[in-house]
Amino acid sequence: MEESRSYEVNFFKPSTPFLKENIRAIIIGLTIWFLATYGFQTLLKIMETPTPEATYVAYQQIAPKLADGSATAEEKVAAANTYLALLGKSGALLKNDALKTAFTSTVYDLLPGDAKETLLAAATKAASDSKVDVGFINTALGITENPAMMAVVPYALIKVSPDKLAMTDEALKPVMDKFFIHNQSFLTDTIVFGFPFHYLYTALLLLTLFVLICLVYCFKIDGLMKKYEMEKSFE
Length: 235
Description:
By secondary structure, the protein is mainly alpha-helical. The chain has ten helices and four strands. The two termini are about 25 Å apart.
């Protein structure tokens, strides 16, 4: 009776020269992929420097003036636009009442007397109708040529009474730090083909590397099968 062959394969205990070389090729491929992926992420972490956006730097200088009421009209416009830009960064922020109060309050303080009541009425209406007319706000903030900013204005308003107005709030700092401070380095600031290098690397180069590793592995296995004459077993 012909002796039956064992086809059991153990990755950790290869029993034949073919399996040993096959596993060696797999380990090398996985190591290259791991280092290219997580090594780059580690390098990003090591090299990063927290860098605030220019608008946030300007706001930090304005904030104390907003608190004590000494801010100029231009500074209030800058602050309101900073709040508006922040609200546009995430849909979740449109539920942040402190941020929306700061925006509404700053715009309220900017407007002439007769427009203040119009703002409060628009803020009340905006709670149920996002198509409320906010053209006077866009004009006051100088954003009439910025469709993206104008689109956020109706959602940035909140119903508030004159005695509850506050142009700034300590609760805003953690939120502003999160969205206005970015970890940057030469890896993120270097532009290649119009893209930041770290984005191009992770979105394109790593995918290309993965495909190349797969191709090299296929050629390697083909060579091993010829070397150990394993093709004959499939004839």
